[in-house]
């Protein structure tokens, strides 16, 4: 009798242990492709209450999702979404279907149509579909009177791979064309290679506290033009060129890898545009790299991953260099969400009447 009771006790104990392990390792079984899972996860992470409501998600579920993100940060997997209170596998499956199939209201369809029209005029020249599909990394390159900065991000996990700047403060006041060419060659050597390069179209808007220019506006245009030519003809920077090419000049057509994002689009997305003037981006970018799970509620962009070394290097710089670094990171983050991922929340934000009025 005692042995039988002991056997039953051990069986119950094992069942309890199994149940706890099952709860500790929640699984979400799905037939979605990796790309579809990434799309759902991205939308859940970057969208606030208004955006999530467009996908026929009940308000009480939206409230719980936003509450979970504010407490724990972005979701790392779809299985982690099941940790939200009251959210079952069946409900998550419905949410995934709604997001994948764009199950939105007619009002949102109109908004998406407006966003699509907006997208077409945001980037020049048009990006070939194959180049977008094959994209692994993108490099944002920002020019200002006091220097040049860059930020390189991977498409797969939005990881910041390289972040740096080149100060113009020690340059002579007067520079001839050959001096600017030498500067462009020097700048090219500092830039890491990427599959695509994005610059921001020139505008008059700049941070209001920026020091006196060391390179005039026409000099910046000349420098940018030279750098475009160098990036497209450098075997290191243009991966469509191979070492088997006897000379770049022998190629009838060189595949363009440099694109321009419309001016002030990053500033509009990050809400640092006041009238026609940019205010400092340092505060917004500091919050972006801290990635505490709350920033995407304020700015609808995908969260990024930044290693501690790059964070510390950024924080150690003076305000002028921080501004340079901030502008480059804003540029490439905006480009990835607008042109590569076509993040609906991002497109809706920059195409809204209020945002358009500011930009």
TrEMBL record:
One GO term (biological process): transcription elongation by mitochondrial RNA polymerase
Organism (species): Acanthoscelides obtectus
GO cellular component: mitochondrial nucleoid
Cleavable signal peptide: none
Segments forming a coiled coil: none
Protein's recorded name: Transcription elongation factor, mitochondrial
A single MF term (Gene Ontology): DNA polymerase processivity factor activity
């Amino acid at each position: 009798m005692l042995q039988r009771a002991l056997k039953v006790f051990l069986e119950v104990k094992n069942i309890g242990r199994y149940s706890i392990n099952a709860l500790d390792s929640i699984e979400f079984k799905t037939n979605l492709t990796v790309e579809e899972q990434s799309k759902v996860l991205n939308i859940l992470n970057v969208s606030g209450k208004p955006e999530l409501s467009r996908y026929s998600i009940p308000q009480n579920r939206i409230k719980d999702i936003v509450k979970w993100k504010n407490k724990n940060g972005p979701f790392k997997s779809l299985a982690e979404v099941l940790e939200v209170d009251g959210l079952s596998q069946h409900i998550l499956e419905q949410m995934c279907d709604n997001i994948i199939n764009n199950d939105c209201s007619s009002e949102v369809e109109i908004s998406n149509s407006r966003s699509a029209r907006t997208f077409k005029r945001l980037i020049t020249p048009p990006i070939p579909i194959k180049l977008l599909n094959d994209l692994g990394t993108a490099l944002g390159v920002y020019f200002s009177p006091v220097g040049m900065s860059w930020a390189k991000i991977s498409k797969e996990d939005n990881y910041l791979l390289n972040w740096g700047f080149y100060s113009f403060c020690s340059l002579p006041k007067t520079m001839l064309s050959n001096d600017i060419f030498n500067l462009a060659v020097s700048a090219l050597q500092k830039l890491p290679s990427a599959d695509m390069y994005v610059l921001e179209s020139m505008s008059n808007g700049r941070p209001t506290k920026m020091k006196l220019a060391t390179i005039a506006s026409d000099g910046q245009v000349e420098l940018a033009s030279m750098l475009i030519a160098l990036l497209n003809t450098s075997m290191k920077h243009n991966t469509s060129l191979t070492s088997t090419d006897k000379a770049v000049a022998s190629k009838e057509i060189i595949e363009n890898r440099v694109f321009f994002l419309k001016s002030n689009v990053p500033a509009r997305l990050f809400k640092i545009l006041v009238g026609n003037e940019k205010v400092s981006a340092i505060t917004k970018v500091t919050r972006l790299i801290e990635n505490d799970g709350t920033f995407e509620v304020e700015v609808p962009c995908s969260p990024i991953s930044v290693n501690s070394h790059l964070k510390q290097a950024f924080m150690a710089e003076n305000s002028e260099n921080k501004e340079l670094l901030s502008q480059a990171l804003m540029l490439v983050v905006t480009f990835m969400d607008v042109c590569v991922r076509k993040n609906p929340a991002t497109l809706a934000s920059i195409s809204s009447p209020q945002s358009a009025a500011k930009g």
